[in-house]
Write a structure and sequence with these properties.
The chain is of the alpha/beta class and 334 residues long. The protein has two domains: 3-235, P-loop containing nucleotide triphosphate hydrolases (Rossmann fold); 237-332, Alpha-Beta Plaits, CATH 3.30.70. 32% of the residues lie in helices and 26% in strands. It has ten helices and 14 strands. The chain has helices at residues 56-63, 85-89, 107-117, 122-136, 151-163, 181-195, 231-237, 251-258, 284-294, 309-322; strands at residues 16-27, 30-41, 45-49, 71-76, 79-80, 92-96, 169-173, 200-205, 216-221, 224-229, 242-248, 264-268, 274-278, 299-304. The strands form three sheets. It has a six-stranded mixed β-sheet, with helices on both faces. Strands 2-1-4-5 form a four-stranded antiparallel β-sheet. Helix 4 runs antiparallel to helix 5 (151-163). The radius of gyration is 22 Å and the shape is globular. Mean pLDDT is 88; it is low at 1-7 and 324-334.
C-alpha cells in the first residue's frame, strides 16, 4: 500500500461542489440534523464521523435529494437540494453499507445492469464496464455470482456500480462496515486513485482509524457539528485537556481503578498502555501513581502524549452529551 494515502494531500481546486447552510431535518420533536453548515471542495475526500444516531446518514440523504430538509439550504454539483433533486441524482453516485447489489447476477451482469439504469450510451457501455472491472481488480471474477463474493470484493463491485456513469460526487455511507481490515485498506487505495482524477467523495464512517484518510472532516454528535477541519487541525485546535500515557503491569485492572475518579474525564486502553484524559490543571502523574500503587499495580511510566483523532472525538462527544459546550469554539455552539 502506498504510505502517502495515510495523509492525503488536499486538492488545490477551491471550487465548492457541495454547500450547506443551516440544514435541518426534524421528525416531530427529534432533531436528527440540527442546523449544520459546511462545504466540500471539488476533488476532496471529505468525511463525516459520528456515532449511530448522530445525523450522518440523514445528512447524506438530504444532499442526494432522497430526503426533504425541514429547514436550511444546500446545493450539490451546482443544483439546489430543495428544487433540483432529480437533476442531482443524475450527477452523483451513492453507495450504502448494504451495497445494493443483485446476488443472483454475476459481477459483469451487475455492472451491465447499472450501466443501463444510468442510461450510458450503448456505444460506450462495453468500454465503461471494462474500465470498472479493471479499476476494481474484478476482471478474473466477472463471471462469478455476486452471492459468492467475499465482503471485500462485494465492496469493490458496489463502488464500481456507483461510479459507472462517472458522477461528479460519490456519496459513501458507512462503506467499510463489516469489511476486514485488509479489504478496507485496499478500498481506500481505490478511493484515492479515483479522487486523483477530480472526483469528489463524501464518506460517513464511525471508524476512527479511517479519519486520517480524509482531506477534511467533521465530527457530528446529536445532529450537530462539534468539530471541522483537516485531521491535524482538529487535533491541534479541539483537544482542550491533557492526555497521559500510562504504562503499568496490569493495564486492564488499572483502567477499572481510574475510571470515574474526579478530575479524570476518560480512560481507554488502545493497546498495551492506558490513555488517561484529564483537565490541564490536574496533577495526573501524582494521582495516577498514588491510586494504582495503592491497588498494588506497578507503574512503569506516566508521560504526556499527543492525542489521536479518536481521543479528540471521545472528548468532544462527551462534552456534547453532557451539554458542556464551554470549551467549544463559538461558531460550534450556536
Amino acid at each position: 500500500m502506498n504510505s502517502t494515502l495515510q495523509h492525503p494531500i488536499a486538492p488545490t481546486d477551491t471550487e465548492l461542489i457541495i454547500e450547506v447552510q443551516n440544514l435541518s431535518k426534524h421528525y416531530d420533536s427529534l432533531k436528527a440534523v440540527d442546523g449544520i453548515t459546511f462545504d466540500v471542495r471539488k476533488g476532496e475526500v471529505f468525511g463525516i464521523l459520528g456515532p449511530n444516531g448522530s445525523g450522518k446518514t440523514t445528512t447524506i440523504r438530504m444532499l442526494c435529494g432522497i430526503l426533504q430538509p425541514s429547514g436550511g439550504t444546500g446545493s450539490a454539483a451546482g443544483f439546489d437540494i430543495l428544487k433540483d433533486s432529480e437533476k442531482i441524482k443524475s450527477r452523483i453516485g451513492y453507495m450504502s453499507q448494504k451495497f445494493s447489489l443483485y446476488d443472483d447476477l454475476t459481477v459483469l451482469e451487475n455492472l451491465r445492469f447499472y450501466a443501463g439504469v444510468q442510461a450510458i450510451p450503448r456505444s460506450t457501455r462495453k468500454e465503461r464496464v471494462r474500465e470498472m472491472l479493471e479499476l476494481a481488480g474484478l476482471v478474473n471474477r466477472q463471471e462469478q455470482l455476486t452471492a459468492h463474493l467475499s465482503g471485500g470484493w462485494k465492496q469493490r463491485l458496489a463502488l464500481s456500480c456507483a461510479l459507472i456513469h462517472k458522477p461528479e460526487i460519490i456519496f459513501l455511507d458507512e462503506p467499510t462496515a463489516g469489511v476486514d481490515p485488509v479489504s478496507r485498506r485496499r478500498f481506500w487505495d481505490m478511493i484515492h486513485q479515483i479522487s486523483d482524477t477530480g472526483a469528489t467523495f463524501l464518506v460517513t464512517t464511525h471508524y476512527m482509524d479511517e479519519a486520517e484518510q480524509f482531506n477534511r472532516l467533521l465530527f457530528m454528535s446529536q445532529g450537530k457539528i462539534i468539530a471541522e477541519g483537516a485531521p491535524e487541525t482538529i487535533k491541534n485546535e479541539h483537544f482542550h485537556n491533557e492526555l497521559w500515557k500510562v504504562e503499568c503491569d496490569k493495564p486492564a485492572r488499572a483502567l477499572r481503578e481510574l475510571q470515574g475518579l474526579e478530575g479524570i474525564t476518560d480512560v481507554s486502553l488502545p493497546g498495551n498502555a492506558l490513555h488517561v484524559t484529564t483537565a490541564k490543571s490536574f496533577p495526573a502523574p501524582e494521582v495516577i501513581q498514588r491510586v494504582l500503587q495503592k491497588s498494588r499495580i506497578s507503574v512503569y511510566s506516566v508521560s504526556k502524549t499527543r492525542p489521536s483523532l479518536e481521543d479528540v472525538f471521545v472528548s468532544l462527544t462527551t462534552l456534547a452529551a453532557d451539554g458542556q459546550n464551554g470549551n467549544l469554539p463559538a461558531e460550534e455552539t450556536k
